[in-house]
Amino acid sequence: MCTPATLHFARALRRDATDAERLLWYHLRDRRLAGVEFRRQHPIGPFVADFLSLEAGIIVEGDGSRHAAGTEAGRTTFLERRGFRVLRFWNHDVLVRTEAVLAVIHAAVTSSDPPH
């Protein structure tokens, strides 16, 4: 269940996206990657997933200055317990190694392995 505060926070994150988030969204939007639909800054419980594909059961997270390691571990556990596979990339890698990041995401969304 998403609270109004979480929904408001998700909207703020969409508006204030990092350069890495904008670049990744360019490649994920409109089913550009393997024909899979992604949503950005999508609330899931008390958290907001950077990018979510419900059909593939995958969440893509960009890690940078906004993220604290302890919080991220709990967040990942929460998301995995709900059946999602969580892929994490450093924002720097998204910006500098974009094709490699996209290849990992592509492999995950086209894999026959079910999410957790």
Descriptive notes:
With 116 residues, the protein is α+β, with helices and mostly antiparallel strands. The chain has one domain (4-110): Endonuclease, Chain A (3-Layer(aba) Sandwich), CATH 3.40.960. The chain has 5 helices and 4 strands, in the order H-H-E-E-E-H-E-H-H. A 4-stranded mixed sheet has the order 1-2-3-4, sandwiched between helices. It is globular and about 35 Å long.
The radius of gyration computed from the alpha-carbon positions, rounded to a whole number of angstroms, is: 13 Å
SS strand fraction:
15-25%
The total count of strands amounts to 4
Order of helices and strands: HHEEEHEHH
Low-confidence stretches: none
